[in-house]
Write a structure and sequence with these properties.
The chain is α/β, with parallel strands linked by helices and 254 residues long. The protein has eight helices and ten strands. The longest helix has 21 residues. It starts with 6 loop residues before the first strand and ends in a 5-residue tail after the last strand. The model has no long low-confidence stretch (mean pLDDT 95).
Length: 254
């Protein structure tokens, strides 16, 4: 008798980062193929219109809705380091999640996952004071939401202290350095563009985890970026490759 898949993993997309009609349509395709969608909530990109479109796409596809907050940096797309006070960052993050959650609740959904975007994603790992402030605030304002950061994140102990479930993420479409961290975007080959390579890396990460700073870390969520060239093709290759490897796709629940 077939015992079915021996492993389950989340497959997420980061969406809502452009108001161009073609990009909104692309996002809808990606959302339909994912188990979780993290939606830009106005910090680095996004508007109420793109949020509403993404929420409707999630409802139609049964895809779990997540927020993708960032530094308040639309000009730099959230990829610049901002030296704000922790309280200012907390305010910006909560404002963004609250806006998206309001849009979602008006449509009969809610934010179930929170994944920081861009430089904030990395700074939380490097700044214990900032991590403590953001995680504490999120746990109070959105106590049922999951929190997504890179596999091996040093924020895990902070999250556990505040009763926040941390989801360990790996990227299908980014090149990894020997340290287990992703290569900077400005390095040649940092972005994986061939769907077969993207799918191969996804299966490897899902199967073996990531070796981060010398330790093997389990990955519980894989990500495909919507702004990567050929993202719709890549996510379909990923889905097919995971299925062939006996790995099921399903969103974690709080």
């Amino acid at each position: 008798m077939d015992a079915g898949p021996s492993r389950v993993i989340d497959l997420s997309v980061d969406v809502g980062e452009s108001e161009e009609h073609s990009d909104v349509e692309r996002d809808q395709v990606l959302i339909a193929s994912a188990s979780t969608a993290h939606v830009a909530a106005g910090g680095h990109a996004g508007s109420r219109e793109t949020m509403a479109a993404a929420v409707q796409a999630c409802l139609a596809a049964g895809t779990r809705l997540g927020a993708h907050p960032s530094y308040p940096d639309r000009q730099g797309f959230g990829r610049r380091r901002f030296f704000l006070k922790a309280a200012e960052v907390v305010g910006a993050v909560l404002d963004q999640i609250t806006v998206l959650d309001g849009v979602a609740r008006a449509a009969g959904a809610r934010v179930e996952s929170i994944k920081p975007h861009g430089q904030l994603y990395h700074d939380l790992d490097d700044d214990p004071e900032l991590a403590e402030a953001v995680v504490a605030a999120v746990s109070e304002a959105f106590p049922r939401a999951l929190f997504v950061l890179a596999a091996g994140s040093r924020v895990r102990e902070v999250a556990e202290h505040h009763g926040v479930r941390l989801i360990a993420e790996g990227f299908c479409d980014r090149r990894y350095l020997p340290s287990g961290h992703i290569a900077p975007r400005n390095e040649q080959g940092a972005l994986l563009l061939d769907p077969t390579h993207v799918a191969s890396q996804a299966v490897e990460i899902a199967t073996y985890g990531l070796v981060v700073d010398g330790l093997t870390r389990e990955v519980t969520s894989l990500c495909v970026h919507s702004d990567s060239a050929g993202a719709p093709a890549s996510i379909e290759y990923v889905r097919a490759a995971l299925s062939a490897a006996g790995i099921a796709i399903s969103a974690p629940r709080a």
